């Protein structure tokens, strides 16, 4: 029997973990702001840095996210997602 992925608050994910947004709870204004940032139901995100603020990867975008206490983003944990890769491009700094 296959167990469904656990649904957890986004801020509970650790660095390297990924999840799919299932629901955003909060007042209409807060939910709209979060959706305008690109976090919508069905969006797959990966946590690059846990804590406050969270640093999230969404496709080729990076988001700095600090949820309001009255707002919760719920995600289904995606098991076995690889940890984020470090940028291997040559540094432009000497």
TrEMBL record:
One of its GO terms (molecular function) is transition metal ion binding. It holds the Pfam family FeoA. Residues 8-77 form the Ferrous iron transporter FeoA-like domain. Keywords: Iron. This is FeoA domain protein.
């Amino acid at each position: 029997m296959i167990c469904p992925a656990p649904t957890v608050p986004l801020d509970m994910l650790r660095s390297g973990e990924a999840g799919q947004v299932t629901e955003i709870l909060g007042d209409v204004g807060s939910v709209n702001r979060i959706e305008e940032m690109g976090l919508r139901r069905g969006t797959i995100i990966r946590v690059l840095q846990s804590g406050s603020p969270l640093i999230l990867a969404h496709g080729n975008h990076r988001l700095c996210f600090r949820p309001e206490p009255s707002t919760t983003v719920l995600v289904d944990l995606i098991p076995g997602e690889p940890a984020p890769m470090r940028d291997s491009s040559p540094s432009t700094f000497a």
